[in-house]
Fold this sequence. Notes:
Layout: H1 2-24, H2 29-46, H3 50-72, H4 78-118, H5 130-136, H6 145-155, H7 160-167
Amino acid sequence: MASLCLLVVFPFLMAYAASKDVLTMKIPNRVSVILVGAFVLLAWTAGLGWPELGSHAGACALVFAIGFALYCAGVTGAGDVKLAAATALWLGFDALPDYVVNFSVLGGALALAILYMRSYPLPGFALGLPFAVHLHDAKVGTPYGVALSASALVTCPSAPLWRMVLQG
């Protein structure tokens, strides 16, 4: 069951969150709720002890607190904050620095790519795609859920929880 959570549920939810963010500029709350619920199932089936649970819960709380402050300052969206916190729950403190660095690099590259794309007119074939028209609008933000999800998928294989479950 633990391997199923790691190898199917987590990657599927990351891909779903990224695609929903691109298409709608929103990350549904159910994604973060399912991530938390699946982590609880994973922790139970993998036999995580209190110290490991504390590390994972602490990483989640820290990311949520920083993300909430950024949300209050108008820097990020609420869906991004919830997704990042739920992802931190899966990664724990040990993998959190890698996640933040990966997200920063991927998020910066994504922002630059969208700015570059917006500097040119939208091609005719894309005019019939509502999400492309919306994404091309300079008044619309950047779907950072894509960078959060990609960073999670890049970081997770090196996280201690992944190594413990997949090697044990």
